[in-house]
Write a structure and sequence with these properties.
Strand order of the largest sheet: 2-3-1-4
Distance between the termini: 22 Å
Order of helices and strands: EHEEHEH
Shape: globular
Number of helices: 3
CATH class: Alpha Beta
Structural class: alpha+beta
Helix content: 25-40%
CATH topology: Alpha-Beta Plaits
Strand content: 25-35%
């Protein structure tokens, strides 16, 4: 599934930890926005890890699950491209 994850985290240390988690699962497309091609289990793990770090009273994490039909409608103005699945994997 294609998930866009954005965050607004006040504390620098916590923000860095969250970005490190997300870098393991997706592509940073803006400073606090990641595009991730992940499965349900991976999404669950991301949420669990992030919940342990953030301050729920002051921080915000948003998960946007984008359907296949909507993926085709994404428009980008300026540089960049929508994250795509790799055609091959190096193990």
């Amino acid at each position: 599934m294609f998930v866009v994850i954005s965050y607004d985290i006040q504390d620098d240390k916590k923000r860095h930890k969250v970005s490190q988690i997300l870098e393991n699962y997706g592509t940073r497309v803006q400073y606090s926005v990641f595009e991730c091609l992940i499965n349900d289990e991976q999404l669950k793990k991301i949420k669990e890890k992030i919940k342990e770090i953030i301050d729920k009273e002051n921080d915000s994490i948003r998960f946007y699950i984008i359907c296949e039909g909507c993926l085709k409608k994404i428009e980008i103005v300026g540089i960049g491209e929508v994250t795509r699945d790799l055609e091959f994997y190096i193990i």
